[in-house]
# Entry
Amino acid sequence: MFGKRFRNLIIGKQNYIESWLDYKNAVLRGNLIALSIFVGAVYLLVDWANDITGNELYYVSAILIGIIALYLNRLGKHKLSSILFMLLINLLVFLFASNDQYRSGIYIFFVVTAMSSIAIFGHRHKYWAIAFVVFSVVLFFASYWGDISLRPKYVYSEAYIKLNFAINFMIAMLMVIAQLYFLIAINTKTEKEIMAKNELLAKTNTELDRFVYSASHDLRAPLRSLLGLIEVTRHTTNPEELEQCYSLMKDRVHHMDAFIKEIIDFSRNARQ
# Structure
């Protein structure tokens, strides 16, 4: 029940996505956005619990942009939602990595962002995926080797740095595992559906073989009767016998016509 409600939350209860690939990407995107909103809230609470100030604006902005991206995902604007989300997490990671002093492990999130871009955009929008992977790599080198800082530098306690490192590691692992689990779950579901369709196809083929055998037998029977009656008419000149043969021929033709109509009706009902 919770899974269905959560799915309705991230893609919309009334929204119908015809393409299975688009549906899979929409659910994955929604999960990642919801997870990023949760992560922003966690960091906000951690800083509040440790009396750390100065980062609230960044966390709240990340949460709000995540909510906007989730709303776009619900509206069906999947590509725009993906671009906004990937820009958000890349810039947010760069924002903190540029002032990291190489100690809190924030750089590991560039791996997560690159992986997320591949998972979200997929093969259909592979150029966007590649562009954001390159974007993540460029931001990594700019933050690691470049003397760039978009926010004031703060001096944190050793205990806070260790706590942040543990949190960053666990959240990065959680996001990677969540993506892999979702993709494996989707592939497993797809495999089960393919196996079920193959079983249905095999059953349908068996039924089709039986139908062809039965239909061919029922169609040949009137034809054999007609051939027999034609042969009889060739060897008689008795008007009564000829009239009887013609009546039987007409009956055989009507019988075959009725059987063909039954086949057509069956085919029409099966399609509906």
In short: The longest helix spans residues 158-234.
